[in-house]
Amino acid sequence: MRLITTPRRLRVASLPMIVLLLAGALAAPAHAAAPAASPIALRDAVTAAWRAHPSARATEATLAAARARADAAGRPLYNPELEFSADDEGTDRTTTAGVSLALDLSGKRRARRDAAASQLDVAVAQARLSRRDFVAAWLVGWADWQSASRRVQQGEQRLALISRFADLADKQFGVGDISSLERDLARLARDEAEAEQAALLAEAAAAEEAFRNVGGQPDAIAAAPEWSQALPDVTPAPVTWEALPEWQIAQAQSEGAARQVTVAQLDRIPDPTLALTGGRIDFGPASDNVVGVSLSVPLFVRNPYRAEVVAALADADAAAAQADLAQTQLASRAQRTAASYAAVRRAFARWRQSTGTDVDQRAELLERLWRAGELSTADYLLQLKQTLDTALAGAALEGQLWRRATDYLAATGQLEAWLGMNDATGETSQ
């Protein structure tokens, strides 16, 4: 992408962007390192999904149309005109043939070609935005489906443990070790676990549907436990503004609007038409050859086309303002996503280091204490529920980690590099 400026005023970055750029320059090395590579299976699945999705075909068709329009804008403005004329008046007969061509002496063709090049830049950036949004939606759908599937597995474990405890409570009640109230409490806990498991299954089905809608194939990819370790760090948050498609779109639109001003100004300059004519005149028995040259210039008297220039200047100012707004919004988004990702990453790291997340070990310990009479049935169920809820929260937290990581990578221009997608067709690096 070329550096874009407007010919009428100097563009100055907004304050939030300046703060971010200065902070990055002070905290990061001169050449920021690329984020850690994503798992090979994940990047292959994303690339295959993009290639197979209708969005990829639509993007390629849109780019082809934009390239054709750019090529058309670079063609000559005028085609030659061929004219034949015959005049028969009594004994006099005149026959002529001529060719005329309007001349682009003011550079209209060049100005329109430059304006079309900016529109092509917009189309390319929009294609990258479409691909990046697809990739982000795919990763979010995959993360939600993975999280929901793990929550279903945790729910099955919860249901199995509580059902086993309810069976034990029935046996303990049969020999008189516990009261009917405690037995009923265990049965109620089992019924609650069954209801909650049904809700988890419904959530998993909805997550799978959403994942399939973005081109996902649940049976084709399964996450490994260590995949979350491949996510990049947050400090410092590198922001390569030129890599953000939103930035590219805003800048290309601003440049295109500025170039349209030049087009409108040049359209106020009339283009002369040069004509060359040759033929033959017969005067009865005599005849002679004729050759003529003419030059005509249109007069922009009734419509000087000033309003078009005023409109183009206003459009350029609006596009420049939108570019400034995009700078501010992109800076704010980068700050928000980095803070959110850092918070969830810290929470997930603490959860993984916790000693109370081993459900089997803790359930065995609680059962021994209950059998020994050191825990009441209510206390046993309460502590077991806390342990199981923590495990379920961990599965949900990992899904949030991938969601926040995707937002962060997209907002800082790292998503495609992290996945090894280097061009508009979604090719991966080897």
Automatic annotation (TrEMBL):
Q: Which UniProt keywords apply?
A: Coiled coil, Signal
Q: Where is the signal peptide?
A: 1-32
Q: Which residues form a coiled coil?
A: 178-210
List the Gene Ontology MF annotations in alphabetical order.
efflux transmembrane transporter activity
SUPFAM superfamilies associated with the record: Outer membrane efflux proteins (OEP)
Give the family, as the similarity comment puts it: Belongs to the outer membrane factor (OMF) (TC 1.B.17) family.
**Name of the protein in question:** Transporter
Organism from which the protein derives: Arenimonas caeni
The root-end lineage is: Bacteria, Pseudomonadati, Pseudomonadota, Gammaproteobacteria, Lysobacterales
